[in-house]
Write a structure and sequence with these properties.
The protein is 32% helix and 26% strand. By secondary structure, it is of the alpha/beta class. Strands 1, 2, 3, 4, 5, 6 and 17 form a seven-stranded mixed beta sheet that branches. The chain has a five-stranded parallel beta sheet with strand order 8-15-9-10-11. Strand 4 and strand 5 form a beta hairpin. The structure holds 1,4-dihydronicotinamide adenine dinucleotide. 1,4-dihydronicotinamide adenine dinucleotide (NAI) binds next to helix 6 and strand 18.
Length: 475
């Protein structure tokens, strides 16, 4: 006998679990099915973000940053340390604890909101009579029916052709979080978000890290001025970043990996490294979903085809997050999840993709929202830009972290903020102000007239707003 629900959410990542909670809040009898297992075989909801992405990488970024500060930063504060060491097993154990706290938190939230959780892999079996039938395969197989289905099955790491992930030598985002001892040499293919974050972790702990990037520009999607500043800072720290390379071969042997490539000058090169992280983007995950059974349409790149409201080609079937078009970001998935649950309830929510913030958690952090200067130039839009360096910010000086700047771009005529771009300390937090401002269609003058606490890093945002009108007060 199948169990009947109003809404079944397939996938318990940030998109799926949030969609399930919102649907339950709106009064729907809701289930969420997720197959992720912890090391004991138990449920580990939270998807890539919680298990092998955002959360564990931030745990390791924090640990490695402490290590770096202790080794290099404390001296300036008059703090002396001897015999500094890193216990990698303990650091990884702490990271696993943080992950488990998040897994357990989601299970608690399901209980609190009366979402029924099923641990296993969900696949469509058939549809008819206004319901979809879904089989759950796992330790306790089940059969469900749903009036509405939200597919939130996420994405998987994209492998380089001929270099499958073994998670021992050739690592995806998963293996990159579980290297048991600091490697002497680490190769990274792809200088995107994962490559830079994980490269930074292991570099701080002592690895000699070389990053090989296919594109000739560093962080092409980032505002050029900010990307240049970030490149300078990361290179100074010791990340060896090579742009414009073409990988020709990857060979894995017992004691390491050899990457053959052509460099930007067209010269054949070889990189020998103990471990290799391949971070060249991700592909949508529809494995085992059995989309064909109900005629759910995918696009030519394997994403579930959806419209701007996350509606698929099937009535009452929705898809959100990494498995559909748009940036593969947890917070974008969450917004889509909430919006879909509200649409099922007949409400009219709106997700503004132009105000989805981006953050890269390197040190200095990189964060931005809205359009870059190069995008505005290409679109022929008249704009004014203002920048303010953290070097001129009192709090940044007191912190001893003065790298980077805040840059604000506003429309030349109306002064509406079109983009805010940051590189520097804690900009992952500072960017929120810019997002709020843009959501409320604020002008740069609005920000310039708002009282910001002193001394705080956020004063740099106000000063960047003043700089749009060429009237900074502290620079
Ligand atoms: P990415 O799309 O950020 O970067 C991939 C990089 O690899 C690009 O620079 C690309 O030009 C390069 N590349 C592609 N093929 C290559 C090749 N054959 N040889 C050399 N370079 C090559 O992808 P990444 O870093 O794998 O991350 C995947 C997704 O995860 C991203 O969409 C990202 O948004 C998300 N993510 C977000 C985080 C955050 O918000 N802080 C953290 C980690 C991941």
């Amino acid at each position: 006998m199948s169990k009947a629900f109003d809404v079944v959410v397939i996938g318990g990542g940030p998109g799926g679990y949030i969609a399930a909670i919102r649907a339950a809040q709106l009064g729907f009898n809701t289930a969420c099915v997720d197959e992720w297992k912890n090391e004991k075989g138990g449920p580990a909801p939270g998807g890539t973000c919680t298990n092998v992405g955002c959360i564990p990488s931030k745990a390791l970024l924090q640990s490695s940053e402490h290590f770096e500060h202790a080794g290099h930063g404390f001296k300036d504060h008059g703090i002396g340390l001897s015999n500094l060491s890193i216990d990698v097993a303990k650091m990884l154990g702490r990271k696993d604890t943080v992950v488990k706290q998040n897994n357990d938190g989601i299970l608690y939230l399901f209980k609190k909101n009366k979402v029924t959780f099923f641990h296993g892999r969900a696949s469509f079996t058939k549809s008819g009579g206004g319901v979809y039938e879904i089989a759950v395969a796992g330790d306790k197989p089940d059969a469900l029916t749903a009036k509405h289905v939200i597919v939130a099955t996420g994405s998987n790491a994209r492998a380089l052709p001929g270099a499958a992930f073994d998670e021992t030598s050739i690592l995806s985002n998963d293996g990159a979080l579980r290297i048991p001892a600091v490697p002497k040499t680490l190769g990274v293919i792809g200088s995107g978000v994962i490559g830079l974050e994980m490269g930074s972790v292991w570099r701080r702990l002592g690895a000699d890290v070389t990053v090989l990037e296919a594109l000739p520009t560093f962080l092409g999607a980032v505002d050029e001025q900010i990307a240049k500043e970030a490149h300078k800072a990361l290179t100074k720290q010791g990340l060896k970043i090579q742009l414009g390379v073409k990988i020709s071969d990857v060979k894995s042997a017992k004691n390491g990996v050899t990457v053959a490539y052509t460099d930007a000058a067209g010269k054949e090169q070889k990189l020998e490294c103990e471990k290799l992280i391949v971070s060249i983007g991700r592909v949508p995950n529809t494995n085992g979903l059995n989309a064909e059974a109900v005629g759910l349409k995918l696009d030519e790149r394997g994403f579930i085809a959806v419209d701007g409201d996350c509606k698929t080609n099937l009535p009452n079937v929705w898809a959100i997050g990494d498995v559909v078009r748009g940036p593969m970001l947890a917070h974008k998935a969450e917004e889509e999840g909430v919006a879909v649950a509200e649409r099922i309830a007949g409400q009219h929510p709106h997700v503004d993709f132009n105000t989805v913030p981006w953050v890269i958690y390197t040190s200095p952090e990189i964060a931005w929202v809205g359009q870059t200067e190069q995008q505005l130039k290409a679109a022929g839009r008249a704009y004014k830009a203002g920048t303010f360096p953290f070097m001129a910010n009192g709090r940044a000086r007191a912190l001893g972290d003065t790298t980077g700047m805040v840059k604000m771009i506003a429309d030349a005529k109306t002064d509406e903020i079109l983009g805010v771009h940051m590189v520097g300390p804690m900009v992952s937090e500072l960017i929120a102000e810019a997002v709020v401002a843009m959501e409320f269609k604020a002008s740069s003058e609005d920000i310039a007239r708002i009282c910001h606490a002193h001394p705080s890093l956020s004063e740099s945002t106000k000063e960047a707003a003043l700089a749009v009108d060429k009237r900074t007060l502290n620079f």
